[in-house]
Amino acid sequence: MSERAHWLAGRVAVVTGASRGIGRATALAIANEGAHTIVAARDAAALDATVGAIRDAGGGATGVPTDVSNAADVDQLFRIASGIGPPVALVCAAATLERELFDEISLASWEHTISVNLTGVFNCCRAAFTPMRNAGEGRIVNIASLSGVYATEKFAGLAAYNASKYGVIGLTEGIAVEGKPFGITAISVSPGAVDTDMLRRANPALRATLVPHQVAAMIVALLDSPLSVASGANIPLFSNA
Ligand SMILES: NC(=O)c1ccc[n+]([C@@H]2O[C@H](COP(=O)([O-])OP(=O)(O)OC[C@H]3O[C@@H](n4cnc5c(N)ncnc54)[C@H](OP(=O)(O)O)[C@@H]3O)[C@@H](O)[C@H]2O)c1
To answer: How are beta strands 87-92 and 12-16 bridged, if at all?
Structure first.
């Protein structure tokens, strides 16, 4: 049986939230399949470390310090990506989580969570849409959460985070509808508890049942599939242990 190249091989991929955690693991896994991987987050030194790890493994990567809630930053990110090649793969992993009881959430805190977790995904998907349409193909994976899925366990202090993740799932469905005529697919994945800084800060008592590279492997598998008939779906990720 012949070995087929991964769809990502030779393409340009953008991964946000790539300075640590799931985004970093996903960037490494994508680069390992032969994509030039543009890694974005705010922490420039941590991004350099991600780029260094990818290059040490023989891959290609470019770091672009970016605040995803800032549309000008995101436009600059996609300008740099497009200078390397059409950014036809996008993984939105960047997010923030502030744990605050509902009646203590300030408007500023609510707006911060929504601007990073939901508007940040909007900014990136919107900036990616035109180059994907021009290329005649595009595959988007947005990381939502079980916190954005009805009838899964919810935790006190996460109302803003939950709302932002419900929004990501709805936004992804909308992009899937409009991307269809142009060969653009969009999927959301909703992990449970993954062993990262975010989980440790949010809920130190909660036992992680997934590690970042398991989520990364799922995302890379999704990016290798046309998925057009499933575009818009949200895939909950539970432990297989
Ligand atoms: N860990 C879990 O249990 C879990 C479960 C379900 C879903 N998720 C989701 O999985 C994704 C990754 O989370 P994680 O657990 O890997 O969290 P993490 O370790 O805290 O990483 C979050 C990433 O987002 C980046 N980020 C935060 N604010 C940003 C901003 N304004 N602009 C650009 N980048 C920003 C951070 O980089 P900088 O600080 O350098 O900007 C970092 O790279 C998130 O969407 C999260 O909601 C996580």
So the answer is: parallel
pLDDT of 75-125, one tens digit each? 999 999 999 999 999 999 999 999 999 999 999 999 999 999 999 999 999
Q: What per-residue confidence (pLDDT) applies to 241?
A: 58
* 194, 203, 211: residue to mutate for ligand 1 pocket, most atoms within 8 A of CB: 194
Helices (H), 57-158: 71-84, 107-114, 120-135
Domain containing residue 157: CATH number:
3.40.50.720
Distances (CA, A) of 192 to 96, 160, 196: 16, 17, 12
Instruction: Count the domains in the chain.
Output: 1
Is residue 6 one of the residues assigned to a domain? no
Please tell me the distance from the alpha carbon of residue 62 to that of residue 80, in angstroms, as a whole number: 9
pTM of the model: 0.98
Pocket test for ligand 1, best of 189, 198, 238 (most atoms within 8 A of CB): 198
Whether the pLDDT of residue 234 is over 70: the answer is yes
Q: Which atom, in ligand 1's list, is nearest to the CA of 116? A: 31
pLDDT of residue 32: 98
| Ligand 1 centre distance from Cα of residue 3 (Å) | 34
Kindly state whether residue 25 falls inside one of the protein's structural domains.
Answer: yes
Range of the domain at 203: 12-237
Q: Is 198 in the pocket of ligand 1 (CB under 6 A)?
A: yes
Q: Which atom from ligand 1 is nearest to the alpha carbon of 212?
A: 16
Q: Is residue 7 part of a domain?
A: no
Q: Is residue 5 part of a domain?
A: no
The torsion angles phi and psi of 186, rounded to 5 degrees, stand at -140, 130
The predicted-structure confidence for 144-170, as pLDDT tens digits, reads as follows 999 999 999 999 999 999 999 999 999
